[in-house]
Amino acid sequence: MSRPTWSVQEVLARRPAVRVNQLGHVPGTPARATLVAPDVAPVAFRVVREDGRVVHEGTSVPWPVRPEPTSGLPVHVLELGDLDAGTYRVEAGSARSHPFRVDDGIHAALRDDALRFFTLMRSGTAITVPGYARPAGHPDTAVPAWTGPAAAHLYPGWHDDGTYDVSGGWYDAGDYGKYVTSGAIAAWQLLGTLDLVPGDRRVADECRWQLDWLLRMQVPPGRPLAGLAFHRVHGTTWSPLPGWPHLDPTERVLHRPSTTATLHLAAAAAAGARHLRTVDPAYAHRLETAARSAYDAARQHPALLPPDDHARHGGGPYDDADVGDDLYWAAAELWLATGDPAYEQDVLRSPEHAADPFDDAGFDFDAVGAPARLDLALHGSGLADHDRVVESVRAGADRLLAVQRRQPWGQPYAPAAGWSWGSNGRLLNNLVVLAVAHLVTGDAAYRDAVAEGTDHLLGRNALGQSYVTGHGTDHSHHQRTRQFGHDLDPAMPPPPPGALAGGANSIPAPDFPYDRRLVGQPPQCCYLDEPTSEVTNDVCIRWNAPLVWVAAYLDRFLAAGSALP
């Protein structure tokens, strides 16, 4: 039972010509809109309260490059003025925007919904949330290491006849796989949210759920490759789409341990030890012990790389041929958690420490030099060259500011090579860089850039699309998932509020179907809100985690009177 399919042009025709952040703004922060119009001269516009009172009038600034490259559209930028609390719309000639609110508390519900997404993605436990209740899926208490001809071909020389308890954790995305290198960075980012909402039990509970699973993915003593982490666990074939997790008929197996997964486990476990030490010292000690042993095991097996199996065996490969940044991240987190000088020396000696980890393409699971640098800037004041570390964050943020100023849509993301799979997650990670620059320098320009950068995610974009389910008028709500498969099976629930769609993807993936309607479209227009568009409309814990972080940051630091910690 699928929705109709639309061309990109039909979507554009149905959206208001005035594109706004459909959630809204906090009083005193930048409020801008983008008008799609062929006029080469400025266009008069006005901002109208819901009671009909005009509160601001102005003229647009025509964008000098026509069409604008990322959208393929002729556009103008509108400065909406200093707006008091209330609900508004923007009018430009006959065009009207969607309504939006101005209020101090607009980001709290976004933060909470984005966080609840993780509860609904839990594996191995019954879900009792109204509207999303289901039995426990995938107990994963006795999962075998993968054997057979396919495993031997992919992992020559590896054999493990054991079975392992790898229960719990979060499903990664629209499939039922659980991947250490994706799950660790998501856990790290939620742990970082605790700096913004200290003592929030909801965040801490979700982090512990995932950290417990990560600990189970570490190969125990006495087994082959002990101390390393299994790279992933999922079926040997893809599970049906849609389909409930507790009805998944596929055979679950563990893929060979990898150096990258092991270092990601070390980084996330060390970060967990640091964040949770005051509330549960015994648990923090367990995490630290696991992080240390994983780091040591990775040093002993420095080149056990995860191969790219082109997603032929029931899950994504999460391959990564370079372990230098992974080693740097793990060393940084271990030093921050323990203060051990040996880890500090590993940080300082790493080539990654002298490199620039920031660019406008955004960081991700396969580029974790940035997470290391951000945490060193935030928490590593005792580091020998901490001033240089802070300056590197500032420099990276300044380049993102420059990118943002070159965009009529307000997003600090416009990679020349194209918009990638999960572009919304990468854009959010650029916002995290800007936010950390604000936290370590106190410069409000970075804070305001984060506020404006969310405009793109919430409707101020080429398609007039809010990419967060339940937030905005024209919001994504047909994401491609198995367990939220209402579009394809009306007996199943729809994607929940707070689920972030992957977003525009202008780089066809050779191993995944790329809809012909997107071929040749400008980058921002390469998106389909349809339940079969995996490359643009999947969900992922690795994208929702920075959404929680950014929403928590904005909720704390945009309100009047907020101050740096």
From TrEMBL:
Residue span(s) of domain Cellulase Ig-like: 15-96
Family matches, as SUPFAM superfamilies: E set domains (SSF81296), Six-hairpin glycosidases (SSF48208)
Single GO molecular function: hydrolase activity
One Pfam family in the UniProt entry: Glyco_hydro_9
Glycoside hydrolase family domain: residues covered: 110-550
Keywords from the named record: Carbohydrate metabolism, Glycosidase, Hydrolase, Polysaccharide degradation
Stated family: Belongs to the glycosyl hydrolase 9 (cellulase E) family.
Protein name, per record: Glycoside hydrolase family 9 protein
The species this protein was found in: Cellulomonas dongxiuzhuiae
